[in-house]
Amino acid sequence: MNKERPRWGHGELFSKSRIILLWLESRRSSLPRPQKATALAVDNCAYGRDVVPLSPAVREANRRNQVVPRACPWGSTEKSSMGKEYDIVAKLYDPLLYFFMKPVRKAVLNELLTYKDKAILDICCGTGNQVKLLAKNRFTNLHCLDLSASMLEIAKKSDYPIHIYNEDATKTNFDNESFDIAIISFALHEKDRITQENFIKETHRLLKNDGLLLVVDFAFDELTTIFSKIGIIFVERLAGGEHYAYFKNYIQNNGLSSLIKEDKFKLTKKNRKLFTGITVSLYRKV
Ligand SMILES: C[S@@+](CC[C@H](N)C(=O)[O-])C[C@H]1O[C@@H](n2cnc3c(N)ncnc32)[C@H](O)[C@@H]1O
Predict the structure, then answer these.
(1) What's the half-sphere exposure (Cβ side, CA atoms, 13 Å) at 76?
(2) Nearest atom, ligand 1, residue 168 CA
(3) pTM over the 0.70 mark
């Protein structure tokens, strides 16, 4: 089926993995650290060259949720670098994370097995690895979106009938209530609070009444083993300054439980993976 999938010899995989880890590490140490900045600096960065000031309400939400001001690395604005952060890792994403992701992908598949003909949207789908697994298992109405053209290039490398869109998950071009099921997998923890809230808000708009939201992300609580915590922190630190800062905020803010509000989505099922460090949570739109 997947004719164009690259073949990875052990030697090549090892050397490419080393290069990317070294690159991530050098990026982490050379970038300016997120600093305590004024609200205006945050605004400038978040809104790019237009320098649109945030409303007092949004600024207050930032403060309440301890949003770390963006460092605006590479001397560019956040907006102009959006969608480019995965350019270098795109080709390595699946090979590097294969063993880590495999049980998680399977858990999502199992959760959705009874919905094979439903309209399913994978939001921030990356390389499309999850939807490809669903397609392989004869799901028939699959859609996925991502901001990164490089990640989508990999997603497109399959013969499966998947609809792929280059869209911003905070404001998509789909009509209200277009989908029965939405998946958000490993996309929330690496974003600032406002973006996380916008992902959830937009997902709520896109789902039909009674639609399902399946979220996969890290969980740090009394059930999470220390082994799992250490492994996840190690990986997230490698991913770099800003990414790690947002991950820390996400954990400090209690992850999904503070982000997904009961008046919008009702939690119906929760499953733990990777030594309890990951949750696969199923919500129903209220
Ligand atoms: C850690 S990857 C997760 C990919 C995939 N969901 C998975 O489980 O492997 C996060 C993805 O979110 C995408 N992303 C980040 N911000 C986005 C946005 N505003 N709109 C759409 N995609 C976004 C990135 O391009 C990246 O592919």
Answers:
(1) 9
(2) 20
(3) yes
CA distance to 41, 183, 210, per residue, from 188 (Å): 23, 11, 22
pLDDT digits over 260-271, tens only?
A: 999 999 999 999
Rounded to whole angstroms, the Cα distance separating 283 from 260 reads: 9
What are the b/e assignments for 142-177, b being 16+ CB within 10 Å?
bbbbbbbebbbebbeebebebebeebbbbebeeeee
pLDDT per residue as tens digits for the range 108-120: 999 999 999 999 9
> What are the φ/ψ torsions at residue 4 (nearest 5 degrees)?
-90, 5
- The minimum-distance atom of ligand 1 relative to the CA of 216 is 8
Q: Which of 94, 132, 147, 238 to mutate to test the pocket of ligand 1 (most atoms within 8 A of CB)?
A: 147
The domain defined by 84-285 carries CATH number 3.10.129.10 = no
4 burial via Cβ count (<10 Å: 0-12, 13-18, 19+) = exposed
Asked if residue 168 has its Cβ within 6 Å of ligand 1, the reply is: yes
Give the burial class of 118: count Cβ atoms within 10 A of its Cβ; 0-12 exposed, 13-18 middle, 19 or more buried: middle
Domain boundaries, the chain: 84-285
Q: Which of 235, 237, 236, 232 is nearest to 221 (CA)?
A: 232
